[in-house]
Design brief:
6-stranded mixed beta sheet; 4-stranded antiparallel beta sheet; 10 strands; 35% helix; binds adenosine-5'-triphosphate; binds magnesium ion
C-alpha cells in the first residue's frame, strides 16, 4: 500500500450494491482510488449512493460486485470487521453519537480501549485532540452541556483518537449552521491532514465539498465526475507507513 511504491491507500474497484428491498441499484460499478493525506468529497443529490459507499468502505455493509482494498487488503477477507474498524478507520456522523453519560474526554478516550492503550496514554491523547479542536476547557463536560458545534468537534477528536488511516464522515455538518459546519470541516481537514489520514466526506453541501481537495460526484449510483487532477499535494509519510506495518 505504501506511498513509496505508489500504491493508493484506498482502492474502490467496480463496486455495486443493490438493495432488494425497494429494488434499488444504490451503487453501480463505482471505481476510484485515493492516497493517504488526501481530502475527498463525495457529492451528489439525495439518494445517489454516498452513504452506501461510505458504509461499504467502513465495513458496515458488503458490495454485491467489485471489491474494496485498504492498504492492499481486500475488505472481503477481513475476518474481524470491528477490530479492523477500531484500528484503521475513524467515523464522523451527521449526529455526534456521543455517549450521553460520559464526558467529552471519556468519549474521546473510548475508541482507544479497543486498542488496549494504557489509561495515561488514552488520557494524554484525548487531551491533545480536545485541545486541537478548541475544547480543552470543555473536556470534563457532558455532551448535553455543550453546544451542537462543540459536540461535533468532539466527534472529530474521537474519530481521530486511534490515528486512523481513513476518516469517513457522512454529512458531518448536517446538524449545524453554516459557520459551525465550516469550522468542523476545517478542523477535520487540518487535524486529519496533520496525521496523514485520508479523509472522505459525503456531503450535498457545496461549501463543504469546496473545502476539500478533490470531489467525486455520484448520480444514481454511478460516478459521473472526479476532479482528481486539480490538486496533488505531496503525500505525508506518517500513517501510510504505520498502516502498512499493522494491517498485514
Ligand atoms: N438499507 C437499505 N435498504 C433499501 N434501500 C436502501 C438502503 N440504504 C439505502 N437505500 C437506497 O439506496 C439509494 C442510495 O441511498 P444512500 O443513502 O446511499 O444515498 P445518499 O446519497 O447518502 O443520500 P442522502 O444525501 O439523502 O443522504 C437510495 O435510493 C436509498 O433509498
Ligand atoms: Mg446519505
Amino acid at each position: 500500500m505504501n506511498e513509496a511504491t505508489g500504491s493508493p491507500l484506498l482502492r474502490v474497484e467496480g463496486v455495486s450494491r443493490r438493495f432488494a428491498d425497494g429494488d434499488v441499484q444504490a451503487l453501480d460499478g463505482v471505481s476510484f482510488s485515493a492516497s493517504a493525506g488526501e481530502t475527498l468529497a463525495l457529492t451528489g443529490p439525495s439518494g445517489c449512493g454516498k452513504s452506501t459507499l461510505l458504509s461499504l468502505i467502513g465495513l458496515l455493509d458488503q458490495p454485491d460486485r467489485g471489491r474494496i482494498l485498504i492498504g492492499g487488503q481486500d475488505l472481503a477477507r477481513v475476518r474481524q470487521a470491528s477490530a479492523f474498524r477500531a484500528r484503521h478507520l475513524g467515523f464522523v456522523f451527521q449526529y455526534h453519537h456521543m455517549v450521553p453519560t460520559m464526558t467529552l474526554q471519556e468519549n474521546v478516550e473510548a475508541p482507544m480501549l479497543a486498542l488496549g492503550l494504557p489509561r495515561a496514554a488514552r488520557r494524554d491523547r484525548a487531551a491533545e485532540l480536545l485541545q486541537a479542536v478548541g475544547l480543552a476547557p470543555r473536556a470534563g463536560f457532558l455532551p448535553r452541556h455543550v453546544s451542537g458545534g462543540e459536540r461535533q468537534r468532539a466527534a472529530v477528536a474521537r474519530a481521530l483518537a486511534n490515528r486512523p488511516a481513513i476518516v469517513l464522515a457522512d454529512e458531518p455538518t448536517g446538524s449545524l449552521d453554516s459557520r459551525n459546519g465550516q469550522r468542523v470541516v476545517e478542523l477535520l481537514i487540518t487535524q486529519a491532514r496533520a496525521e496523514g489520514a485520508l479523509v472522505l466526506v459525503a456531503s450535498h453541501n457545496p461549501e463543504v465539498a469546496a473545502a476539500l481537495q478533490r470531489r467525486i460526484a455520484l448520480r444514481d449510483g454511478v460516478c459521473v465526475a472526479d476532479d482528481r487532477e486539480r490538486l496533488r499535494p505531496a503525500p505525508p509519510q506518517g500513517l501510510a507507513s504505520v498502516f502498512s506495518s499493522t494491517v498485514r
